[in-house]
Fold these 3 entries.
Entry 1:
Amino acid sequence: RWYNTYSPEEYIREVNAGKFPIVVGREFSQEQKITMWFMYELGVWHKLDLDEFKCRYGVNFKKNYRKMMLFFKLLGLVKENNGYIYTTKKGKLFFNNYFEKIITECAIPNPPFRTITEREKASIINNQNYDAN
């Protein structure tokens, strides 16, 4: 997850210089990426293409997430048909709410820098303090 500079001038300058205008970011594990994508697909589009999942992650969804899917099916949240997992009416409510929770937890709360200039100034200050110790 990445946050770009809020400054249009910095954004344009960085892009014109062939750089990404990122002020702060966060890397996720493969399992976290899979969870977010799964929840996004079911929470927003209400379906998951099993072939696309395998192409994207190199993982057989039905094999690796068999227990979770059984749980969701027993709760009446999903159904499977023709290579897709679909949310039921009940599942749409669940996955919409759960997706919002996942996205909130994965966000960087109150990003520390709004601009690249702020980030660079903080880096200089931190390096000076570090060198002084």
Entry 2:
Amino acid sequence: MEWDSYKLDKEGLVYKFCSEGHRGKIAKVIRFQEFSDLGRNAFNLAFGDLDEARDKIDDKVISNNGDQLKIIHTVAQAIIDFFSSRPRAFVLIWGSSHSRTRLYQMRIARFWAEVSKQFEILGEFENEWLPFQKGVNYKRFLIYKK
């Protein structure tokens, strides 16, 4: 998938990049963390601004830097790269708020034709994992390579 995205710096399971927009440069972090609740080879995707003082991800801040689509594309590139070295992994994604989860859902739906060629995506709806469908409000998403 060829999309306009930021250059990623990778160190292990951590990807960093810099958002550049009308609010300046903002350091962003994507971290794949092992997630034992779903069994072996499952990872949670954590994403947000880098809180350099605490060396943590702030997933609640709203940057409003005017580059949302480019950021989403960059996260997608990190997911693709992650699966290139772990093709049998499962990645769990959900937002820090209902509105962020909804944003992820809208972006998946928007690029579904491209995404679905490489990945299976399940959505959690009423405590059940179902194949992704546009128009259903999911609690979280599980992605794995076809």
Entry 3:
Amino acid sequence: DLAAGSIEGYSSALPWTIGPVKNKSAVALASAFTGDAAEVTPLAWSVLATRPEMCKSRKSLCEKMVKVYVEAARILRDEPLRATLVLKKRFAQVPDDVLTASVDAIRRSTPIYPAPGAPSLANSTAFYVKAGMMKPEDALKNYEGLFTAEFVR
């Protein structure tokens, strides 16, 4: 671990990055939550995806799934204590102050309606290409038709 000196650094998501920074066993070099990645904002960091024909044949299911996403985003934004208490059940080993800081950071980047669009999908792809996780030639040139906000209400 970082404090023991057995690793030099890592890239991770919340809440795992906040604890080491808070206890000063690590420093954050860059974080999208603090505006360090403005060139890839907005980013499609949580996407619900399915085959196009699924929502044509099972429209009610897609509406219900998206309704859960919208409600979760609303709770995260409007009821941070409730969101923290729910997450505490899943992340019981994470200290309360770290979990609270994680929820606060995520709240700031949670859109009112969590529907991806062409800009967020293109930015996500650009991030993967820059990070070496995707070959530039595998990136799509156009993202139209890959997303819908039809079920977001």
